[in-house]
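A favour, since you know our structure tokens better than I do. Could you add the entry underneath, on a fresh line?
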Amino acid sequence: MAVQKLPLAKALNESLRTALETDPKVVVMGLDVGKLGGVFRITDGLQKDFGEDRVVDTPLAESGIVGTAIGLALRGYRPVVEIQFDGFVFPAYDQIVTQLAKMRARSLGAVKVPVVIRIPYGGGIGAVEHHSESPESLFAHVAGLKVVTPATPSDAYWMLQQAIQSDDPVIFFEPKRRYWDKGEVDTEAIPGELHKARVAREGTDLTLVAYGPMVKTCLEAASAAAEEGKSVEVVDLRSISPIDFDTLQASVEKTRRLVVVHEAPVFFGSGAEIAARITERCFYHLEAPVLRVGGYHAPYPPARLEEEYLPGLDRVLDAVDRSLAY
């Protein structure tokens, strides 16, 4: 059947399987992606079915993994790299920023570097240091990179397909605490645009915009607000670079209020750019300042404290109430 109910993790696995079956130039590579199937089992069974030349277990060397992927892409392959945890990407940051992001511009478009870098990100799983970070704004700031993140199994399947087919490098952030959330996936549907935002819930009084792991939290907040007679619209951004400001603008012009929610620290987070751009675009429509909800400007805490750090239902609803009070 084309329509299946899958956990987000399994949807990613099926997407990689489809890509490997469809295009012999697709190569999956990373630490423990082969025999182990990845620490989250996203690549489970792929090496067994496609061989060690297509699903490659690499040494523990993120810079080498990404550097090798760049070389493969220059030779016509479409490498899909897995960084095991968000905090492990920084040894490869130099390769990503100084090489991967700039190759196409440096060659005036003659060279394509179709590399996908998959990064499980965010907290909520009780992990140790360097395993629960949200570095998306660091990559969104770099011209030449596309930065996307799915919030549903359907988007996980289709957005990964589109990322692999893109001729530009894509940083693909996977919300790890949502890996086990289930949803319907139609593997024969026609996907929407990769960088188009999605209105996840209609509303008239206020817009909540989120992406990745916080979309579910915002939908729960909208349901809680509805019990008090407040109509909250939820927009799933899906793409962090580029951002679909047209969909956001249309929503804010309707509701006249905006609250931006993400797990990453509020300070210099992606919400700051959204707040500034929507204020410029919608100044005469806004009836309250754009508010932001996110993590604190502090290193990610030990697991016992992460529930205090992560923006949850209460913090989102507090921002909704503050906005509606203007």
